[in-house]
Design a protein that fits this description.
It is built from 18 helices and 14 strands. The protein is α/β, with parallel strands linked by helices and 423 residues long. The strands form 3 sheets. Strands 3-4-8-7-6-5-9-10-11 form a 9-stranded mixed beta sheet, sandwiched between helices. Strand 10, helix 13 and strand 11 form a beta-alpha-beta unit. The longest helix has 16 residues.
């Protein structure tokens, strides 16, 4: 029986019966594509799976479970080739119109351009299987991200190990902004990484509260990491990129829409140990993050507000239904999401990685942290390590996730186990 175009290997020409090898139609997708000068960045050329996932991130909207299911079965490179070779709709469980739209857009995708754009911003594109990939995102199943575009120098996996998300109303009250800022600052001073969405209102208050005390914060965007949205938060977003991380499922240049905000929320919920909701109306989008967190068996928490405020009604409904736990300060949040024997009792930590496994700059920062109980401020540690304050701060949070150091107010010190000589 003659082979058809739906297959990925060689096919038989109907008239001559001669076997032919398929040829790529686009220079942007094939793994052997080269730049105009004949060169090719080695990290891109040698990883067709990464290149294919980068292409799919522009071709497919986030959270597509059908595409996610096929990625788990055949891999991204084979999936792109299936679209490229004009596979029949049944192969991908897609209707003909949708598959035709993918096929028409595929040759227009410039993978090299996207990867170069994010690299020029000091970023990268990570995929499942990378050492930096946070394994907790795999809890999203077929809807997990195809990959993540990241801007910033910290390790996403390390920073997400001890993280908590904070979400709420965009048009928040002064009470909500104050509570979010204070709570985020308290959590940062306890060594927690605060995650939010860089939107107006509670998101911005949480980010600013963290940055104000020298903490590290992550922003999950509904746009490309090179697009500052909303524009009014441009300065804040730039500061997050310098002191923390920006991450997105969408490639450079992409702008948000209503559905992308909702889909973004699932990443916020999955990435962190728990989600705190500060002010949300009954139909607030922030409640979708809380529901996602609950469905993923993450801790869901709510901060009570005035009973006369419509912006408190959604949070109160969560708490009253038992879907969220009432919290009022960072100590109560830590009690829920922290490790037993770590946040609930005198600090004890399990075995940590040997120092010789740390990267050079992380090791420099660790060497700069004094063995005294009072510790040292960030400025002194940066001078001692010979690195910028932003980089030292990121490395300190990574070391905190690994149990080497701990934050005490504005100072950093060796963890109690290390100070006692047992680390």
């Amino acid at each position: 029986m003659p082979e058809t175009e739906t297959e990925l290997g060689p096919r038989t020409e109907p008239r001559t019966g001669r076997r032919t090898e398929p040829q790529p139609e686009s220079r942007h997708i094939g793994e052997d594509c080269a730049a105009s000068d004949g060169t090719h960045p080695p990290s891109w050329k040698d990883n067709p799976e990464r290149r294919a996932r980068a292409a799919l991130s522009r071709l497919i909207e986030p959270g597509d479970a059908v595409i996610g299911r096929w990625l788990g079965q055949v891999g991204a490179a084979s999936l792109v080739e299936a679209i490229h070779r004009r596979a029949e709709p049944g192969y991908l469980d897609l209707d003909a119109d949708r598959l035709a739209a993918y096929r028409a857009r595929l040759p227009l995708i410039d993978v090299d351009g996207d990867l170069e754009r994010v690299r020029s911003l000091g970023g990268r594109f990570i995929i499942p299987g990378d050492t930096e990939w946070p394994s907790q995102l795999d809890d999203l199943g077929d809807g997990r991200p195809i990959g993540l575009w990241i801007r910033g120098s910290g390790s996403l996996r390390m920073l997400a190990l001890r993280s908590v998300s904070m979400v709420g109303a965009r048009a928040c009250t002064s009470y909500g902004a104050h509570v979010a800022g204070e709570l985020a600052a308290q959590l940062a001073e306890r060594g927690w990484v605060v995650v939010s969405g860089a939107a107006y209102g509670i998101d911005a208050a949480a980010h600013r509260g963290t940055l104000a005390v020298g903490g590290v914060t992550l922003a999950v965007l509904a746009s490309g990491v090179d697009v500052a949205y909303p524009a009014g938060n441009s300065e804040l977003i730039a500061r997050i990129a310098a002191q923390g991380l920006l991450l997105s499922e969408l490639p450079p240049g992409e702008h948000p829409n209503r559905f992308r905000f909702v889909l973004r929320n699932r990443v916020i919920a999955a990435l962190t140990r728990g989600t705190v909701v500060v002010e949300a109306a009954l139909r607030s989008g922030a409640l979708s993050t809380a529901r996602r967190a609950r469905d993923l068996n993450r801790h869901t928490m709510g901060v009570a507000g005035p009973v006369t405020s419509e912006l408190s009604a959604g949070v109160h409904a969560l708490i009253r239904s038992g879907a969220a736990t009432l919290v009022t300060d960072a100590a109560e949040v830590s009690e829920l999401i922290g490790a037993i024997g770590d946040d609930l009792a005198p600090r004890r930590s399990g075995p940590v990685l040997p120092r010789d496994l740390l990267t050079p700059n992380v090791a420099k920062v660790l060497e700069a942290v004094p063995a005294t109980a009072e510790g040292a401020p960030l400025e002194r540690l940066a001078r001692q390590a010979g690195l910028s304050q932003d980089e030292v701060q990121q490395r300190l949070y990574e070391l905190g996730s690994l149990g080497f150091v701990e934050r005490c107010g504005a100072h950093w010190r060796l963890a109690r186990r290390a100070r006692s000589g047992r680390g």
